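CO-FOLDING WORKSHEET

Operator: S.A.
Ligand of interest: magnesium ion
Run index: 323
Mode: holo prediction, single chain
Checklist:
[x] sequence pasted
[x] SMILES validated
[ ] output reviewed
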Amino acid sequence: MALLEVKHLKTYFDTLKGQYKAVDDVNFDLEYGEALGLVGESGCGKTTCALSIARLLPKEGKIYGGKILLEGTDMVQLSDDQIREKRWKDVSIVFQGAMNALNPVMKVGDQIAEAIMLHEKIKKEDALRRTERLFELVEMPADRIRNYPHEFSGGMKQRAMIAMALACNPKIIIGDEPTTALDVMVQAQILNLLEKLRRELNMGLILITHDLSILGETCDKIAVMYAGKIVEIGMVEDIFERTAHPYTKRLISCFPNISKDKVIPAGIEGIPQNMLEPQPGCSFYPRCHLATDLCKTEVPTSIEVGKKHFSACHRASEVLNGR
Ligand SMILES: Nc1ncnc2c1ncn2[C@@H]1O[C@H](COP(=O)(O)OP(=O)(O)OP(=O)(O)O)[C@@H](O)[C@H]1O
Ligand SMILES: [Mg+2]
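OUTPUT RECEIVED:
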């Protein structure tokens, strides 16, 4: 049994302006110890996917359909009480800028110990001892638990937040842009840490980013999202070397290439479709150089283009063959 199976997930936001289909029929699975990268432009539904899995959606957001099977249990069907019980024990999230959530007037170790005590009936001194071990796990000296947040660098604060996320031995850890606010060196260290932890602790890791280039070394597989849907999913080398969706191709071509004169990323022309007024057909159609009349009228279904490699594109085989 897979650790996590997301099947036909539909999460919509009901607003005064209408209904946003932020996640619209998303499918993927995750094994123990496996890392999945979720990538796509701003607004494509990455965070909504994560919040659905952790059942942390704001009140406007609702799961309208599908299943989120965690070790076979459907998270969608659980009551709020059952969810509270499971959250942080089964799934925990490290958010972008999570480090700013630390309370400035409280020692970092005390904050983590209190979080542990919220979930488990243990004494403060035991919780502090656990916190010391968690600090060692995230490669910080144990005695640092007695410091205040202002005595930490940004990277150290984010390590502390990862320690907090690990406190209840989750089966899945989701990093939602966990390194965006950090400089490039520290970003690499934090990604290496997450990569090491998921192997050592045999956890599932879902790493969310809008920067495809950072996923190559950290993840086993990559899901590319566009306008609420996964348009391509596959193992890292398939995504980079046997790309089967025009949108993925464009994301890859956005990497700055220092071997060429031009070091400015190319960017993708056009704007993503308005999720309030979805057009018929493929949502990438208006920005796609390969689009045909069929793409304008018919939503492409996800087809297997290689082993465990899927693309939702009418012209996937041509993209695979280099177009
Ligand atoms: N609370 C909300 N109310 C209404 N609409 C929302 C809400 N949160 C998100 N949305 C809409 O859902 C869509 C997906 O948002 P989401 O935050 O999941 O995107 P994202 O891929 O994480 O983007 P980013 O890279 O900017 O973090 C967007 O179109 C957004 O406007
Ligand atoms: Mg987001």
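REVIEW:
The longest helix spans residues 184-200.
The chain has a mean pLDDT of 91.
[x] output reviewed
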